[in-house]
């Protein structure tokens, strides 16, 4: 990775961390400069505006999370139930290690749905992409009504994601996983 790519990635990672903790609109470029050690000029050299930075940050994490989910889905050694177990176990580890603050996409959408079409669209595309990937997984495992079941399962998962930052109750993960499995089988 080039120095330029490293700087860009650091800006994106720090932006994500600050925004999930403070909200997107509650995060300032001044705070970002303080945490990254980069000047405003450097940040704006990579990103034309704060909204552009947020949009690029969301796209980066959408790709990262989607790639991780694709890897899990395409693992031929795991059964469908094992794939679902792994999906929920990854989330559990984030919560247990105090590294989970909520869904970047739900938060961004709630803050920008009426203010920035690009950000809102990125969030919508990510959520639809998850449904498509879960549908693909269910089809690969010969589950009937795969799309409808994927939509229902992702509603369960999204509800869990929305609840965990508030409750920090890992027992919800087991409850949601049980509901998810019931929905897809």
From TrEMBL:
DNA-binding region location: 28-47
- Which residues are in the HTH tetR-type domain? 5-65
Query: Looking at the keywords, is Nucleotide-binding present?
Result: no
Gene Ontology molecular function: DNA binding
**Annotated InterPro entries:** Homeodomain-like_sf (IPR009057), HTH_TetR (IPR001647), Tet_transcr_reg_TetR-rel_C_sf (IPR036271)
Signal peptide bounds: none
Q: Does the keyword Transcription regulation apply?
A: yes
Keyword annotations of the record: DNA-binding, Transcription, Transcription regulation
The name on file for this protein is TetR family transcriptional regulator
Record organism: Photobacterium lipolyticum
């Amino acid at each position: 990775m080039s120095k330029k790519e490293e700087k860009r990635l650091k800006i994106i990672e720090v932006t994500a961390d600050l925004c999930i903790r403070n909200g997107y609109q509650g995060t300032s470029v001044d705070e970002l400069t303080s945490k990254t050690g980069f000047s405003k000029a450097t940040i704006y050299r990579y990103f034309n505006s704060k909204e552009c930075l947020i949009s690029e940050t969301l796209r980066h994490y959408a790709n990262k999370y989607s790639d991780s989910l694709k890897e899990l889905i395409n693992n031929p050694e795991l059964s469908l139930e094992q794939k679902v177990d792994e999906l929920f176990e990854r989330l559990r580890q984030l919560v247990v290690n105090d590294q989970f603050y909520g869904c970047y996409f739900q938060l961004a959408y709630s803050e920008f749905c009426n203010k920035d079409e690009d950000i809102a669209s990125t969030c919508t595309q990510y959520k639809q992409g998850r449904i498509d990937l879960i549908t693909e997984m269910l089809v690969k495992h010969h589950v009937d009504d795969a799309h409808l079941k994927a939509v229902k399962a992702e509603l369960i998962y999204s509800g869990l994601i929305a609840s965990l930052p508030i409750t920090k109750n890992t027992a919800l993960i087991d409850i949601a996983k049980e509901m998810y499995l019931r929905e897809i089988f």
